[in-house]
Design brief:
By secondary structure, the protein is of the alpha/beta class. Helix content is 28%, strand content 25%. It contains eight helices and 17 strands. The chain has helices at 13-24, 50-58, 75-88, 104-108, 130-136, 172-195, 228-237, 304-310; strands spanning 6-10, 32-33, 38-40, 45-47, 62-63, 92-96, 114-118, 126-127, 141-148, 158-165, 211-212, 244-248, 251-261, 272-275, 280-283, 288-296, 302-303. Strands 5-2-1-6-7-9-10 form a seven-stranded mixed beta sheet, with helices on both faces. Strands 12, 13, 14, 15, 16 and 17 form a six-stranded antiparallel beta sheet that branches. The longest helix has 24 residues, at 172-195. The radius of gyration is 23 Å and the shape is elongated. The protein starts with 5 loop residues before the first strand and ends in a 10-residue tail after the last helix. The mean pLDDT is 94.
């Protein structure tokens, strides 16, 4: 394998897993681009991204421009980003969940171009939240696509693709970790191909395009008028962010685990139709949902039985 100079652009843990694998594979990493530090935690202190934390541990220089658009809102930061990339002299730029749009000058800069690690089997689920949306839609299979980036939104030629089954109880957190590991293995393979001059681009199919729009906090509120299986998938899709919420006894609760119940339902959506020691069963627009793990505001996740001991609910109660 011919080692490459690999600049890296990424922000969350999904990207950090790939950066660690690239470094371990023996490639020189002269520069990391990542999002600016953000407020986090109860104290809302500025915190570095997982990618920045790893880059600092590895001794890799880090740049954090708010934009790379030379004609955008932050032209001085974009110019500094360009100077950093020029100075790094990368053969290739690997991009994974970076969070900034790359303008054409970035795409054109590396000799091998820009390779993206995308968390779906393209062209399905182009966009910002492919893992969440695959679970929400009830897909049985997803995967990783290594793509040669172009100016479009996840429209570039495919270089490698591998499938990953979605289990019936997968959350976004669980599936994310498996796909992050898969993406890390695949980008190392793609870089080996690039070093050997063996990349084989394949055009994306024109059919089957879907878009994975960014998850909004407003999506967290459970609409009990939806079918029970749709709500159950959303609970898993929104774990760990933003969580699925409902109103009960004057407080906002988060629902972390639920199970579809095959019952004849007569109550209006949101009505509690059964309560026992282990679960709370709620009528939905179609079918019913057993609530299993919940979380009070300021509390920890736990079995619904613990909550019911402190806040008894009876059949006929209505959840918001």
């Amino acid at each position: 394998m011919s080692a490459l100079r690999v600049a890296f652009a990424g922000t969350p843990e999904f990207a950090a897993v790939a950066l660690k694998a690239i470094h371990a594979a023996g490639h020189a990493v002269p520069l990391v681009l990542t999002q600016p530090d953000r407020p986090a935690g109860r104290g809302m202190k500025l915190s570095p991204s997982p990618v920045k934390q790893l880059a600092l541990e590895l001794g890799v220089p880090v740049a954090q421009p708010r934009s790379l658009r030379l004609d955008g809102k932050f032209p001085e930061e974009a110019e500094a980003g360009r100077a950093a990339l020029d100075g790094a002299r990368p053969d290739v730029l690997v991009v994974a969940a970076y969070g900034l749009i790359l303008p054409q000058w970035v795409l054109d800069l590396p000799r091998v171009g820009c390779l993206n690690i995308h968390g779906s089997l393209l062209p399905r689920w182009r966009g910002a939240a492919p893992i969440h949306r695959a679970i929400e839609a009830g897909d049985a299979v997803t995967g990783i696509t290594i793509m040669q980036m172009d100016a479009g939104l996840d429209t570039g030629d495919m270089l490698l693709a591998e499938r990953e089954a979605i289990a019936f109880d997968d959350t976004t957190g669980l599936l994310h970790d498996r796909l992050a590991a898969l993406g890390a293995r695949m980008i190392v393979r793609a870089l080996a191909d690039a070093g050997a001059g063996a990349l084989r681009p394949v055009k994306q199919p024109e059919e089957g395009v879907t878009y994975a729009h960014k998850i909004a906090k407003s999506e967290a509120a459970i609409a009990w008028t939806l079918p029970a299986d749709v709500i159950e998938r959303r609970v898993r899709a929104f774990d760990p962010f933003p969580g699925a919420t409902f109103q009960a006894a004057g407080e906002t609760m988060k629902l972390w685990r639920a199970q579809v119940e095959r019952l004849d339902v007569t109550g209006a959506p949101g009505t509690v139709i059964a309560v026992d020691g282990q679960q709370l069963v709620v009528a939905c627009g179609d079918g019913a949902l057993a609530l299993l793990d919940v979380q009070r505001s300021g509390g920890k996740r736990g079995p619904v039985a613990q909550w019911l001991q402190a806040q008894p609910l009876q059949p006929g109660a209505v959840l918001g």
